[in-house]
Amino acid sequence: MNRNQQSFELWEQGKKEEAIQLLFEEIEEHPADADAYINLGSMFMMMEKYEDAAAIFATASEKSPDNTEVIYCFASLYYEQGQYEVAIKQYEKVIALKPEQEALADANFMIGMSYQGMGDYNRALVYVLRATELSPEVTDFNLSAGDILMSLEQFDQAKQYYDLAIQHEPDHQGAYFKRGLMAFILDEADSEVYFKKASELDPEMYQEQLKQLKEIESFIQAQSKK
């Protein structure tokens, strides 16, 4: 077992300082080991020590400027801090390096999430849909596409992506609830079927989600009175 693996075992055991020290030792002995930098920076991110994480990723970037994993981690660091414009530029660097399809899909998705964070839902949709085209089986991509379309009040299109999420992950509680929500908004007869399934999968979560349903029902009733 190498130090990278050992460090994560220590981390999972709650021995964070020991895990970090082990990675520093790995970097000292093998300064070209990108994995050690990525793991160390990621641990600092999880501890919300963003300046330390940035320093580690910057060093890794100097040593391996075309390493897509390092650039992606740097982008994610900015995203976590709400620096969406800077994050987008980093994710675009990943795309420009033409990585494998999974990484390409992830980068497009995160650009979409960054635009969503900035409140630009139309641009967000473009990139999230691109991610769904590259990796149509990823539930999070389909759910996010549905969520953005719902925000844009494109309910018919939104339900198609919730259907895809259910198709690829048949026991996803949130996908059933959101699909039921679309059926409810569109006044379709089968909304209760989806809500019933959502309730069966996670009764406690469903009770929380009912608040959202009641808010939407009140909004629809108010609109109909105008």
**Beta-strand percent range:** under 5%
CATH architecture of the domain at 138-226: Alpha Horseshoe
Quote the average pLDDT.
93
Order of helices and strands: HHHHHHHHHHHHH
The count of helical stretches stands at: 13
What percent of the residues sit in helical stretches (DSSP H or I)?
Answer: over 70%
State the end-to-end distance: 68 Å
Number of strands: 0
What can be said about the biggest beta sheet? none
* pLDDT < 50 stretches: none
Overall SS class: mainly alpha
Question: What does the model show?
Answer:
There is one protein chain. This protein is mainly alpha-helical. It has a domain at 138-226: Tetratricopeptide repeat domain (Serine Threonine Protein Phosphatase 5, Tetratricopeptide repeat). Helices cover 81% and strands 0% of the residues. The chain contains 13 helices and no strands. The radius of gyration is 21 Å and the shape is elongated. The protein starts with a helix and ends with a helix. The model has no long low-confidence stretch (mean pLDDT 93).
What's the quick description here?
It holds the Pfam family TPR_19. The chain is mostly helical.
Question: How are the SSEs placed, and which strands pair?
Answer:
Layout lengths: L2 H10 L3 H14 L4 H13 L3 H14 L4 H13 L3 H13 L4 H17 L3 H14 L4 H13 L3 H14 L4 H13 L5 H11 L1 H23 L1
List the defining traits of the structure above.
mainly alpha; 226 residues; Ycf3/AcsC/BcsC/TPR_MFPF; single chain; Serine Threonine Protein Phosphatase 5, Tetratricopeptide repeat; elongated; 81% helix
